[in-house]
Amino acid sequence: MTYETILTETPAPGVGLVRLNRPAALNALNAQITGEIFSALESFDRDETIGCMVLTGSDKAFAAGADIKQMREASPVDMLTDDFTDWRRLSALAKPVIAAVSGWALGGGCEMAMMCDMIVASESAKFGQPEVGIGIMPGAGGTQRLTRAVGKAVAMEVMLGSRNLTAEEAEAAGLVNRVYPLDSYLAEAVALAGKVAALPRVSVRLIKDAINKAEELPLSAGLEYEKKSFFLTFATEDKHEGMAAFVEERPAQWKHR
Q1: Cβ atoms 15, 95 nearer than 8 A
Q2: Structural contact between residues 131 and 138, judged by C-beta atoms closer than 8 angstroms
Q3: Left (φ > 0), alpha (ψ -120 to 50) or beta: where does 107 sit?
Q4: Which of these is catalytic: 36, 131, 169, 188?
Q5: Which member of 108, 109, 142, 242 is catalytic?
Q6: 57 included as an active-site residue
């Protein structure tokens, strides 16, 4: 497909990369760019050669929030019927997505990064939810995902006290997986995606699903869900190959089925 607001590439075997490309607007999110992001990620999700995706912006801004120009005159009905902050398409992806974040990740940009499965950040990354400053509030998961990641007190200060989390603070709080220098963060994110892409994909898919369920289910229900997913892996060809390779002390040759 031809996109106007994003760039796509496959920078490493098994890795699909989507780059936000609205530099004049600091990658502000509107209906067009979010639609193109989701379409590109869904295309990689369907591609049998791809095992993991990376979502990134520019060194200056991952995404500096939602496009205020689009929302300025919107009514509640407009937001309900054409809600570009309803990003369930990102959550529905079967394959893992790693956000490679540098510079500003504010408002919808922070929320989009948090919807990914892992976050690799540059030392310049800053995460914030400043929506209250324009008379609204987070609407794409900010109050829920950030609170789960960093706790109630810090989330309150970010959203009500104009605090932006630095990359180091976000890593210490568990929001970010790793922090790297500006000149290497994207390469490190791609390298991590390459490691994930090389793993047996049915197991990866089930692990991602079970971890996400851990945020939604009580422990007893989560354990039961995990057990059933564990049993399902015993029906895969990769289970037989992986165990045979372990016993025979050789590298496994995954078939991803």
Answers
A1: no
A2: yes
A3: left
A4: 131
A5: 108
A6: no
Backbone angles phi, psi at 9, to 5 degrees: -160, 170
- Identify the pLDDT of residue 65: 87
Q: Please tell me which residue in 111, 169, 188, 226 is annotated as part of the active site.
A: 111
Burial tier of 245 (Cβ tally within 10 Å: 0-12, 13-18, 19+): middle
pLDDT bin (cut points 50, 70, 90) of residue 68 is confident
- Which among 40, 61, 64, 66 is annotated as catalytic? 66
- The residue written with tokens 């692990």 in the block is 207
Q: What is the pLDDT of residue 77?
A: 87
**Active site annotation includes 174:** no
Backbone angle region of 209, left / alpha / beta, with phi > 0 → left and psi within -120 to 50 → alpha: alpha
Chain Cα centroid distance, residue 26? 19
The token duo for 167 is 């990359």
Is 0.90 topped by the overall pTM?
yes
133 is catalytic: no
Query: Quick one: which of 39, 47, 51 has its CA closest to 89?
Result: 39
Residue 111 is a catalytic residue: yes
| pLDDT at residue 98 is higher than 90 | yes
Tokens 């568990």 — which residue? 174
Q: Are 60 and 38 in contact (CB under 8 A)?
A: no
pLDDT, the chain, mean? 95
Tens digits of per-residue pLDDT, 121-157?
999 999 999 999 999 999 999 999 999 999 999 999 9
Both tokens of 73, joined, read 């005159």
Which domains, from first to last, does the chain contain?
6-197 (3.90.226.10), 201-248 (1.10.12.10)
Spatial distance between the Cα atoms of 113 and 97, rounded to a whole number of angstroms: 10
